C-alpha cells in the first residue's frame, strides 16, 4: 500500500466508528432506558444479592453481623416484588427465599426467620424451598462423569485450591482445546495470559482481594483478552461475544483435564482492569474479557448450590 492508501484506510476506520458505533450505542442505551422498568431492576438486585449471600455461605465467617445488610436488602426487594403481584412461584422468588432461609438458620437470626414465615404466609407461598446455600463435594466427585451431559453438568466453580500449581503443559493443552471455539469468520481473536511465577501470582491476587476471598492462598490467574482490531466498527460487540464463547470452552477444557476453575468478573476500563493491563503489557487493541482462577481442588470442597433455572422462561417456542 502506498502512503495515500494508508491515509485513506486510517480515515475510513475512524469515520466508520462515528458512522456505526455511536448510533448503535445510542440505540442500545435508548432501548435500555425505554424498556427496563424499575421492577426489572429489582429482579436483577434479587439475583445479585442472592448469589452474593449464597457465595458467602461457603466460607466460615465469625462476625455475628455478617451478611445482615444484604439479607435485609434481599427481603425488602422480594417483598416489593410480591406486593406488586410478581409471580411468587418464579425462579427469582424461590431462589431468594431459599437462600434467606439457609442464611437465617445458619446465623440464628430468629427475627429474620419469623419475617420470612410471615411473608410466605401473607402471600400464600406453600412450595418447598429449592436447594440453596452450600454443599460439600469431594474432588473425585467433581470430575465424575461418563458422558457429555454429565460432563457439562458436573462442572462447578471452585474457590478452594491446593497449594501446588498447575503445570504449564496442562495450561497450554487447555488453551489448545479452547482454540477449537467457533469464532466469527474464523478470526480467533482471543489470547490467554498466564504465569507460573509465585511472586507474580501473589501480586495479581491483590487486584482481586476486595471482591474475591482466597482462603487457601491465591490461585493461578489467567486473563483472557479479545482483539478489537479484528472486527469492523459495526461488529463492535463481536470481540466480547467471541470472547465469551472462548471462555466457556476454556472452562470446560480445564474441567476435562481435572483442573478446577472459577471465572472472576471484571469491568472494562475500571480498576483493577487498568492495573492488570499495565502489569501484563496487554495491547491497547485487546479488550479484557475476564480473568479465571485455576488450580487443583481440595479433597473436600464447599460449593454453592447455585440452583439453575428450568427450561420454562429460557426455552421460548416461536
What does this protein structure show overall?
- The protein has 318 residues and is an alpha+beta fold.
- It has helices at residues 3-35, 38-56, 68-83, 91-106, 110-122, 139-142, 148-154, 168-178, 198-206, 238-256, 273-280, and strands at 134-138, 190-193, 220-227, 260-264, 286-295, 300-304.
- The chain has a 4-stranded antiparallel β-sheet with strand order 2-3-5-4, sandwiched between helices.
- The longest helix has 33 residues, at 3-35.
Distance between the termini: 50 Å
Label the overall shape: globular
What is the structural class?
alpha+beta
For the report, how would you describe the main beta sheet? 4 strands, antiparallel
Low-confidence stretches: none
- Estimated share of beta-strand residues: 5-15%
Helix content estimate: 40-55%
- Any idea what the radius of gyration is? 23 Å
How many β strands by DSSP?
6
Query: What pattern of helices and strands is seen along the backbone?
Result: HHHHHEHHHEHEHEHEE
Oligomer: single chain
Widest beta sheet: strand line-up: 2-3-5-4
Give the rounded overall mean pLDDT.
Answer: 89
> What is the number of helices?
11
Amino acid at each position: 500500500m502506498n502512503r495515500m492508501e494508508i491515509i485513506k484506510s486510517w480515515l475510513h476506520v475512524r469515520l466508520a466508528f462515528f458512522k456505526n458505533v455511536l448510533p448503535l450505542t445510542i440505540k442500545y442505551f435508548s432501548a435500555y432506558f425505554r424498556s427496563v422498568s424499575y421492577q426489572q431492576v429489582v429482579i436483577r438486585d434479587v439475583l445479585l444479592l442472592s448469589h452474593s449471600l449464597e457465595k458467602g455461605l461457603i466460607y466460615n465467617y465469625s462476625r455475628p453481623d455478617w451478611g445482615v445488610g444484604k439479607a435485609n436488602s434481599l427481603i425488602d426487594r422480594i417483598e416489593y416484588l410480591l406486593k406488586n403481584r410478581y409471580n411468587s412461584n418464579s425462579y427469582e422468588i424461590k431462589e431468594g427465599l431459599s437462600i434467606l432461609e439457609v442464611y437465617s438458620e445458619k446465623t440464628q437470626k430468629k427475627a429474620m426467620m419469623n419475617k420470612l414465615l410471615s411473608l410466605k404466609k401473607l402471600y400464600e407461598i406453600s412450595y418447598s424451598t429449592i436447594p440453596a446455600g452450600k454443599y460439600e463435594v469431594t474432588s473425585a466427585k467433581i470430575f465424575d462423569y461418563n458422558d457429555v451431559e454429565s460432563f457439562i453438568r458436573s462442572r462447578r466453580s471452585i474457590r478452594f485450591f491446593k497449594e501446588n500449581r498447575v503445570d504449564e503443559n496442562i495450561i497450554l493443552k487447555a488453551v489448545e482445546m479452547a482454540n477449537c471455539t467457533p469464532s466469527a469468520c474464523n478470526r480467533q481473536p482471543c489470547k490467554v495470559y498466564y504465569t507460573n511465577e509465585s511472586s507474580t501470582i501473589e501480586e495479581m491476587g491483590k487486584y482481586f482481594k476486595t471482591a474475591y476471598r482466597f482462603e487457601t492462598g491465591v490461585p493461578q490467574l489467567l486473563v483472557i483478552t479479545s482483539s478489537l482490531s479484528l472486527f469492523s466498527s459495526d461488529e463492535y460487540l463481536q470481540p466480547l461475544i467471541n470472547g465469551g464463547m472462548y471462555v466457556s470452552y476454556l472452562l470446560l477444557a480445564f474441567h476435562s483435564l481435572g483442573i478446577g476453575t472459577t471465572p472472576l468478573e471484571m469491568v472494562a476500563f475500571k480498576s483493577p482492569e487498568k492495573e492488570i493491563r499495565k502489569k501484563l503489557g496487554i495491547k491497547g487493541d485487546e479488550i479484557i474479557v475476564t480473568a479465571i482462577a485455576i488450580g487443583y481442588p481440595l479433597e473436600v470442597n464447599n460449593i454453592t448450590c447455585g440452583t439453575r433455572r428450568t427450561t420454562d422462561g429460557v426455552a421460548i417456542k416461536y
